[in-house]
């Protein structure tokens, strides 16, 4: 899942990004509304965690722009105000969900995951294919009933492949969904991660390389 965190309190923004990355999400971070508009014009995000009171461009205007562009991106709006009128206003602007500060990080994670599920074709909470069972919420993977321990990026790549339901996923798509914008697009990190993932999942191999196209399960 690709997430953009937009928050002018840099310590909070970086803490949220770190926590989301630990949940195997690809996360970009910006600290003002103008930078947010720039990012959404370049990258496709599943979810934007958007502070409402932003410098340069207000969070409301960022949300309006996402709606105006007709993007599939879901918006989780954050604010220091917990008044019902503020929540209603944020939702009417186009936000998909609303979370007042301070918030429990576990709730933030749950809300981001719930919104991420709404950006694509609905799938069951636990993904199953080719003897693999993947639970995104518990971050657990089993192969033929045996648990497989994966690093966050390995888990992220496997989740993208599982969600594709047999369709071929290109290396570029994997790079976009599982890594943030600071990753060198010419790196071989996708190939190396897929190789490690194949080894950890065991025999017989379930990740197929489609020459010139990408990978599928």
UniProtKB/TrEMBL annotation:
An annotated GO cellular component: cytosol
Keywords per UniProt: DNA-binding, Phosphoprotein, Transcription, Transcription regulation, Two-component regulatory system
UniProt cross-references to Pfam families, sorted A to Z: Response_reg, Trans_reg_C
Single GO BP term: regulation of DNA-templated transcription
Presence of the UniProt keyword Transcription regulation in the record: yes
Function per UniProt: Member of the two-component regulatory system CutS/CutR, involved in the regulation of copper metabolism. CutR suppresses a defective melC1 gene, encoding a putative copper-transfer gene, probably by altering copper metabolism.
PANTHER family for the chain: REGULATOR OF RPOS (PTHR48111), TRANSCRIPTIONAL REGULATORY PROTEIN CUTR (PTHR48111:SF36)
Protein name according to UniProt: Transcriptional regulatory protein CutR
UniProt source species: Streptomyces argyrophylli
């Amino acid at each position: 899942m690709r997430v953009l965190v937009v928050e002018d309190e840099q310590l909070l923004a970086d803490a949220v990004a770190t926590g989301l990355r630990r949940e195997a999400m690809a996360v970009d971070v910006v600290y003002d509304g103008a930078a947010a508009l720039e990012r959404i014009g370049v990258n496709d995000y599943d979810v934007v965690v958007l502070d409402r009171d932003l410098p340069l461009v207000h969070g409301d205007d960022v949300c309006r722009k996402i709606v105006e562009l007709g993007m599939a991106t879901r918006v989780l709006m954050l604010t220091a105000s917990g008044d019902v009128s503020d929540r209603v206003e944020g939702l009417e602007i186009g936000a998909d969900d609303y979370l007042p500060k301070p918030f429990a990080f576990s709730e933030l994670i749950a809300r981001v995951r719930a919104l991420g599920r709404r950006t694509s074709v609905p799938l069951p909470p636990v993904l199953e294919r080719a003897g693999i069972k993947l639970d995104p919420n518990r971050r657990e993977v089993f192969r033929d009933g045996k648990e497989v321990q994966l690093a966050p990026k390995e888990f992220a790549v496997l989740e993208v492949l599982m969600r594709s339901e047999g369709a071929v996923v290109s290396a570029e798509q994997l790079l976009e969904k599982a890594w943030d914008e600071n990753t060198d697009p010419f790196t071989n990190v996708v190939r190396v991660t897929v190789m490690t993932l194949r080894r950890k999942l065991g025999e017989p191999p379930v990740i197929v390389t489609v020459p010139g196209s990408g990978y599928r399960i």
